[in-house]
Amino acid sequence: MMTINGTNFIYTLDSTGQVSSLYSKLTKHEYVSLRSPIWRMIVSTPERPERPVFAAEQSCRLLPDESAVIYDFLLSEGERLDIRLRINFYERRGGLSVTAELTNNSPYTVSEFMLAPVSGVRSLAGDPAADSLVWPNGEGHRVPNPSNSDLSVYAGFRKYERHDYLHTDLDRLYPGSASMQWYTLTNDNESIYCASEDTTGQTVCLHIERTVATNSLSLGFARYPFLEPGESVVLPPLAFIPLDNDWHAGARLYREWLDESGYWKAPVIPDWMRRFEGWLRVILKPHHLEINWPYSKIPELFDEAQAYGLDTIFLLGWEKGGFARMWPDYIPDESVQKNSLGDVSELKAGIDYVHSRGGHVAMFLSYYLIDTESEFWQSGGERAAVKNLWGKPIPFAETYCGEGTWRKLGAPPMPMYAACSGSDMWQEKMLESAKTCLDLGADAVLYDIGGMTPYFCFAEGHDHTKPSMACASKAGRYNELRKFVKSYGADRAIYMEHNVDIFGQSMDLAHSGCSRPRSQVHFPELYRYTFPELNMTNRELGQDDMNYLDNVNYTYVMGFSFDMTIFRCCGSLRDVPKYAAYMKKLIGIRQKYEKYFHFGRFVDTDGFTLSGDTAGIVAKSYAADDGTLGVALWNSAKVEREFTVNFGNAAKSIKLAADEAGFVHN
Fold first, then answer.
1. Cβ 202 vs Cβ 466: under 8 Å
2. Are 586 and 278 in contact (CB under 8 A)?
């Protein structure tokens, strides 16, 4: 047996190297309900790309004086593998930190190593139904009662694709679909903070596993060393910290680590972007080449948007061939055919008009996709593509269609291929593409699919030494793009689709993943609270007049910017009169109290409490630089509510009608 007696915890491994206890001195609760293995390895052989090595089948040596466990060799399916594993445990920041060292002298590749030092957990305080997993799937998800839930429901893939009869898992790759590299098992009073403390940028998997037979959870991470014969590696540390507070405490810990590590620095955002209320997003010419608006209609579209409180128009489908064609060539469409958008001079004139009215123009670029018909691809662009383990480019295909069916149903999608951020050739093209937009007069460029997906790239000639390092230089490359955009003026802006913390430090706006009002799973508070200075849109909540009260109120209290994608970017604000009028009203509140909403910090529920008739009341707080606190309110109930907002020694009585929004400050 080996025990680490920390300041706030006691952690124990039994003689076989399995975890038998994690005791919180803060809450006096034991978190480990049953003895459990803490790691699993995948080796790749010529016959088996996913051959498992299970911790429970191994013999180990405990070194209590060094707080380490050593495996001198490993067994897999009766074969002895010359792979040495050492796992080190130590206290840091009041919790347990764990590192692993691997030396591979086997003939195989060590592709994956999953380490879950906190395993065999059924509940935090004896009631599994009170627990939730809060984790950074996109902006954030909240999974209730996880030890008694089929986690495959939340996993994003079909059953039978994995060994779901043995265990159901939550897995997300960072940096990518996971916006941060931490998560927490939490209830209202305590939590276990789980984090990867890695500044290399390599891909890591946030891994939560529920064993079906025992209704127990393993909390850990998977790394992908792709360790070849003769190679060794020390994997970055993992942190598991018991806390006597809910998920907010974990968010503060993660942000503290990021700030101290030097891995992240908050961007300096132009004032117009701090005041940014949203955009009208329009596709001028879609994939099926049916023109929605020519360049000459840009002034009219902007005037509509400005009348309802928006100062930005976001242009898509301005490129030759229509939207989602010929990427990444980005040549403005000015064909002489009947369905031309017009002359490029008309595009520039439209942008100039927006500027004359005090507005801004954003233009679309894809950071990820290459059209095989583009000049870029034809002239050697395949060298920039992500290559899979078979050496083939990874396809990505979408078909945008109009009134017809034959292109969508009776023909395969037109293939594009994924670009690798580790390609110098691709970075040069992204800089060139930004220049095209900025030279046209754009105030901002958006890099689509900017935070997805950290595919393992096996291409040669890129800057990554291992397939899992394909995104390791991506943060630095985004920083280079930011510097280039800002070379046109400090007020120019750079945007990215998706939220990923390490990329977000180079962005003035993230075009978010989708969150939904009244959702039991979507939990964007997680990212908003951790990074209150970062802007994000209310993506997909501005399409039509359906459910407009929920969508606008939710956007208001969460502090999102409005992404008006009316009729899938083929409509304008005149098509959604109810949404537009109510949006304008709530934008007026945010502008009146801009020191909270635009120049303050989102602090979720910190600094106040509610009392009285509060059922259905959604309340989020914003801290101003002068020390005052404002609270955005939404009565999501269908009846009037009268209640009190309590600020320490002060209290404000509020009455809100059904679906009404409000605001108070101390």
1. yes
2. no
In this structure, are residues 417 and 388 in contact, taking their beta carbons and an 8 Å threshold?
Answer: no
Give residue 443's pLDDT band: very low, low, confident or very high (50, 70, 90). Answer: very high
What is the CA 387 to chain-centroid distance, rounded? 23
Reply yes or no on whether the pLDDT at 513 is more than 80: no
Confidence class for position 413, pLDDT limits 50, 70, 90 = confident
Q: Has residue 595 got a pLDDT over 70?
A: yes
198, 130 Cβ separation under 8 angstroms: no
Are residues 58 and 75 in contact, defined by beta-carbon separation less than 8 angstroms?
yes
Residue 158 pLDDT greater than 80, yes or no: no
In single-letter form, the type of residue at position 121 comes to V
Confidence of residue 230 (pLDDT cuts 50, 70, 90): very high
What stretches of 46-181 adopt beta strand conformation (E)?
A: 51-54, 61-63, 68-71, 74-76, 79-81, 83-92, 95-104, 109-121, 132-135, 141-144, 167-174
Q: Which two tokens stand for residue 315?
A: 């242009």
Distance CA 109, CA 229 (A): 7
Q: For 398-411, write each residue's pLDDT tens digit.
A: 777 888 888 888 88
Hey, what amino acid is at 247?
W
Which whole-number Å values give the CA distances from 563 to 10, 171, 526, 566, 568, in the listed order? 48, 29, 20, 9, 11
Torsion angle of alpha carbons 43, 44, 46, 48, nearest 10°? 80
pLDDT above 80: residue 397 = no
Quick check: 384 and 423 in contact, CB under 8 A? yes
pLDDT category at 466 given cuts 50, 70, 90 is very high
Cα 37 to Cα 69: distance, rounded to the nearest angstrom = 13
Contact 223, 468 (CB under 8 A): yes
64 cis-preceded (ω within 30 degrees of 0) = no
Give the CA distances from residue 89 to residues 61, 117, 274, in Å, rounded to whole numbers and listed in that order: 14, 9, 43
H or E stretch at 426: helix 424-440
Predicted confidence at residue 226, as pLDDT, reads: 98
Complete DSSP assignment for 357-396: TT-EEEEEEESSEEETTSHHHHTTGGGGB-B-TTS-BPEE
Residues 6+ apart with CB under 8 A from 21: 10, 11, 12, 30, 32
CA atoms within 13 A on the CB side of 389: 10
Position of tokens 């939990």?
A: 523
Gap between the Cα atoms of 427 and 525, Å rounded: 33
H or E element at residue 602 = strand 601-604
Rounded Cα distance between 400 and 128, Å, is 45
Sheet holding 661-665, edge to edge: 601-604, 617-623, 629-635, 661-665
Mean pLDDT of the chain: 96
Q: What pLDDT score was predicted for residue 336?
A: 64
> How many angstroms separate the CA atoms of 234 and 237, rounded?
9
User: Residue 468 in contact with residue 226, Cβ under 8 Å?
Assistant: yes
Q: What does the alpha-carbon distance between residue 264 and residue 475 come to, in Å, rounded to a whole number?
A: 10
* CA distance linking residue 419 with residue 427, whole number of Å: 10
Neighbours of 425 (CB within 10 A): 17
Report the C-alpha gap between 164 and 11 in whole angstroms: 29
Q: How far apart are CA 174 and CA 499, in angstroms?
A: 11
CA 497, chain centre distance (Å): 10
Q: Which residues are CB-neighbours of 350 under 8 A, at least 6 positions away?
A: 295, 296, 297, 298, 299, 302
pLDDT in tens, 467-476: 999 999 999 9
Residue 395 bridge partners (DSSP): 417
Is residue 475 classed as helix, strand or coil in its secondary structure? helix
